[in-house]
Design brief:
The complex is a heterodimer.
Chain A (H helix, E strand, L loop, with lengths): L8 H4 L4 H23 L2 H21 L6 H10 L8 H23 L1 H4 L5 H6 L3 H23 L11 H23 L5 H32 L2 H11 L4 H25 L4 H24 L9
Chain B lengths: L14 E6 L8 H10 L7 E2 L4 E2 L4 E6 L5 E6 L8 H5 L5 E3 L5 E3 L9 H5 L6 E2 L6 E2 L4 H8 L5 H5 L5 E5 L6 H8 L1 E3 L11 E6 L1
Parallel strand pairs in B: 1-12
Antiparallel strand pairs in B: 1-10, 2-3, 4-5, 6-7, 8-9, 11-12
């Protein structure tokens, strides 16, 4: 029997599809910049930058009082009120710095910008290992932040687990690999990089499958009532199709099947497109189910 | 007038709400009184998520396993370890020197992190101002600043509601909590709520 006090966060807090898009883009951008450290292709830096900008646009558009943001920031700075215990504030800072670093790297790759004398330093900086290591580290931290953002929301027991940042990092890495595969299909990345990415992706898909099933198992078996309500919605309720069909079927099993075919039989560009799109969709569905299934602990007298 | 506490400062008072379930007749006067006093524009509008009147007091109707109907009234617990205070990225949510959790609208961008952070699900979005509303509303804050009880306490015909300072051993809430059996909601959440449900004498 459903408890009398059953409320999903999306109906009240309205963390819905806009936040799903935000988390998805941030996952691609974050782990994409880690991948950039190894791949160093202009196209990947454009994807990272574009994803960051789109993610930020989604999250700002979600703010109920976005028009008050300048005043909010001004009041915060002038009064010296910085709540560093909030993962959201930490995230705002990380995203801002990461965006600036991304702009420099993108500028370093655009030939006509390099013809402008005072912008030549961007190309030098965007090839420096230390700078790229910082870029990758911030990308990793941005992905971690997007996980802890949910973990810290004490009202939603389903989210109060450190598995979420780990899931976000693993699935963000899978998204970055999917982007690399797509870039290979378009001839923007070498075949050897793509082959390595497929092998790495297989391992990450297996870890993601284990982490998703573990997330459901722990919440269903040992979670509080609120966590069980959310996990039940994911496993057998309103969001079951998205979980089993979207996250696991499309997002994990299809990429694993195509990855095995690629490794054991032969590499096929059309199949790699299917695998990459499926993996990216799976990363999106994962964020959607976890977010939408969040419910409060039912209160009883 | 109360002021914002800075980091490391402790509140001078610990203002608390008491709801005596054994006296409550479930008339809903406190819920209506809260809305009519603090946001009269919402009197005929629903809080869509809760599917009830938009108010800073949320009413939960349920039935016991024995089939007896029962209600629970919940509102901001003014937690001493408030999760909304920890998560608000802009410092819009703060504790004042009375130990009350308050919102500075100038600093709120409407991210709703405080809504998801509240284990008691007592914050709701005002559809016009987009502010995360909760107890206490502006009118009630004015009332208590003038030394008067908040609207819900004034509206209750059964004397089931009270508000006062836990630090004052002679306050009515302290006396009630000393003499009657009471408990707090989600005691294990570690939030140290200052909303007490009196179960009987």
């Amino acid at each position: 029997m459903a408890p009398a006090d059953l409320h999903f966060q999306v109906d009240i807090a309205h963390w819905g599809w806009t936040i799903v898009w935000f988390l998805w883009f941030v996952g691609i951008a974050g782990m994409g910049s880690v991948a950039y450290f190894f791949v160093r292709k202009a196209a990947l830096s454009y994807v990272v930058f574009g994803s960051l900008v789109l993610g930020l646009l989604f999250v700002v558009s979600h703010l109920g009082r976005w028009w008050n943001l300048p005043r909010t920031l001004w009041t915060m700075v002038t009064n010296g009120i910085f709540n560093w215990s909030s993962w959201m504030l930490i995230g705002i800072c990380l995203l801002s710095v990461h965006l600036i670093l991304s702009v420099v790297i993108v500028a370093g790759h655009i030939p006509w910008l390099q013809r402008i004398g005072w912008l030549k330093w961007t190309a030098t900086l965007s090839r420096a290992n230390a700078y790229l290591a910082l870029y990758a580290f911030l990308g990793f931290m941005v992905t971690v932040y997007s996980g802890f953002l949910l973990t810290q929301a004490a009202g939603i027991p389903l989210w109060n687990t450190s598995l979420i940042p780990i899931l976000w990092v693993v699935s963000g890495s899978i998204a970055a690999i999917a982007v690399i595969e797509l870039l290979y299909v378009f001839g923007l990345v070498e075949s050897s990089v793509s082959t390595l990415a497929v092998r790495l992706g297989l391992g990450l898909d297996a870890i993601k499958l284990l982490a998703v099933l573990g997330f459901l198992h722990v919440a269903l078996s040992f979670g509080s009532a609120g966590a069980r309500i959310g996990a039940t919605a994911m496993a057998s309720g309103e969001y079951a199709l998205m979980t089993w069909g979207g996250v696991i079927g499309v997002g994990i099993l299809i990429p694993i099947a195509i990855g095995l075919y690629t490794v054991l039989v032969k590499k096929s560009k059309p199949l790699l497109v299917v695998s990459s799109v499926a993996a990216l969709a799976g990363v999106f569905f994962l964020r959607a189910v976890v977010l939408l299934a969040g419910a409060w602990e039912p209160l009883v007298l | 007038m109360s002021t914002r506490l800075r980091k490391g400062q402790a509140p001078t008072k610990r203002m608390a709400h008491v709801w005596d379930a054994s006296r409550c007749i479930a008339c809903g006067a406190c819920v209506l009184g809260c809305t009519s006093a603090n946001m009269p524009e919402m009197m005929f509008r629903e809080e869509k998520g809760w599917k009830s009147l938009a108010s800073n007091i949320r009413r939960i109707d349920s039935v016991t396993p024995q089939g007896r109907p029962e209600i629970l009234l919940v509102q901001c617990q003014h937690c001493e370890v408030a999760p909304c205070l920890t998560t608000c990225p802009f410092g819009a949510t703060y504790m004042d020197d009375n130990g009350m959790i308050r919102l500075d609208p100038r600093m709120c961008a409407g991210c709703s992190y405080c809504v998801t952070s509240c284990p008691y699900n007592v914050r709701w979005f005002h559809p016009d101002s987009k502010l995360p509303k909760k107890c206490m509303g502006d009118t009630c804050l004015d009332l208590v600043d003038k030394g008067m009880p908040p609207a819900c306490v004034q509206a209750c015909p059964a004397g089931a509601r009270d508000y006062g300072d836990l630090n004052d051993p002679n306050s009515s809430v302290s006396i009630t909590l000393r003499t009657k059996r009471s408990r707090r909601l989600l005691e294990n959440a570690g939030t140290e709520p200052k909303y007490f449900v009196v179960e009987g004498s």
